[in-house]
Every structure is written in C-alpha cells, then in structure tokens.
Recover the amino acids of this structure.
C-alpha cells in the first residue's frame, strides 16, 4: 500500500490543476481567511473536511487537546496564531473544536501514562479546570461518559481562556468577533455546538441557525457610567 506521504508526489500533477486559478488568486491577493479554527491534532479530526473549506478559507491551529493557554501564561504557538488571526488577518470567527475519544482528555484518567510524557502532562494543566468541573459537578458517569463530559467542558474552558487574550478581548468589545465551541463526534460525523445563552451543547442541524458561544455584540461594560451615549 502506498504510504500517505508518497501521495504528495501526485499533488502537483493530479490535484493542483483543478484548483490552479484559486491558488493563483490566493498567491497574488494574499490570504483573507474568515475563521480561525483551533482543533485537536488528532488525525481523525480534519477541520477543512468538517467545514468543507477550500484553500484560503480557514486559518488553522492544532494541538493536543485543542487547548488555548490563558494569556498570562502564554508565549507560544497558539497565542501567536490567535493574535495573528485576529489582528493581522481580521478573522470574524474563532472556533475551538474538541472531539469524541480524545486521547488528551483520556489521559486525565491515566495519570501513570503521563509520567513518560512530561510535556503533555504540563500542557494538559490548561485543561485542569474542565477536569475539576467534571469531578465535582458530574456524578455517576462511567469512564466513557466521563471522558465525553471532560471533552465538552474542556471546549468551554478553552473559550474562556481565549477571552483572556487582549486581541480577542478588544475584538469582542467592538462586536467584531463571534466565538464558537464545537465538538466533533467521530463515530457519527455529528457536530455539537455550544450555545452561550443556554450554556448547553446542541446538535448542529442543516437548515437551522448555528448555535454560538458568544455572539458578535458590542460589549462595553462601562458604557453607561462613563458618559458614553448608547449606539
Ligand atoms: Zn484529541
């Protein structure tokens, strides 16, 4: 069987010609992706496939556990990707996408396995709040359901972390950014989306509006007390 990397030799001859006009335009005009997607690095979760995206549509950042370190602790790839996407590219949507059967989330119930992976263990501390929520507030779950709850709560925690980034906070205040929390179910192909108003995940259904974690409304908490007129 052909190795997956060998297919790269076919790309230029067999795939590129059908999209050459698109690539030519992207090369001359530059990129202007509409969304940043932060997903798990899991090989079964393919952001471009899930969203049916073409080249140029999505700015993607992937890592183990679809984690966004909070701003104060961050000077890394995810933080830079977030800042670049919001400030330089002006994306209007950010999606944090978790998934079923996530190895990073399962690692919380296998602490012995993490002993050989100190970097993963340190990285997963950014998901500790989700683990704490599940341990304290969910009861009577079996191991599988517990991992699922953890994966879903982790999406909510990472959205909260996103909001600690100055670029994200200021875009939200100006009403320029919508935040999305998704969960991709590998076995069914379903996407669950977090509804920030009900604080529940909902099944994404074709033809119905997409639930969002945070709508693009201006959010100026001080407005009424600083002599600023309502708009
Ligand atoms: Zn994963």
């Amino acid at each position: 069987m052909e190795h997956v990397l060998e297919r790269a030799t076919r790309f230029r001859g067999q795939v590129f010609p059908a999209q050459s006009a698109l690539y030519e335009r992207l090369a001359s005009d530059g990129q202007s992706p509409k969304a940043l997607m932060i997903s798990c690095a899991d090989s079964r979760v393919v952001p471009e496939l899930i969203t049916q995206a073409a080249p140029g549509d999505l700015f993607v950042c992937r890592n183990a556990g679809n984690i966004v370190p909070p701003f104060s602790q961050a000077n890394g790839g995810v933080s830079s990707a977030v800042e670049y996407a919001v400030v330089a590219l002006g994306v209007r949507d950010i999606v944090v996408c978790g998934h079923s059967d996530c190895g990073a989330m399962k690692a919380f119930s296998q602490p012995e396995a993490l002993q050989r992976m100190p970097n993963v263990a340190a990285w997963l501390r950014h998901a500790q709040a989700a683990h704490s929520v599940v341990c304290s507030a969910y009861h009577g779950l079996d191991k599988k359901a517990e991992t699922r709850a953890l994966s879903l709560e982790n999406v909510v925690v990472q959205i909260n972390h996103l909001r600690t980034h100055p670029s994200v906070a200021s875009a939200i205040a100006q009403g320029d950014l919508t935040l999305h929390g998704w969960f991709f179910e590998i076995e069914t192909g379903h996407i669950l989306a977090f509804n920030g108003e009900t604080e529940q995940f909902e099944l994404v259904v074709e033809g119905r509006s997409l639930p969002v974690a945070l709508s693009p409304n201006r959010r100026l908490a001080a407005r009424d007390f600083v002599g600023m007129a309502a708009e």
Summary: The chain has two domains: 1-29, 31-217. The chain is about 35% helix and 15% strand.
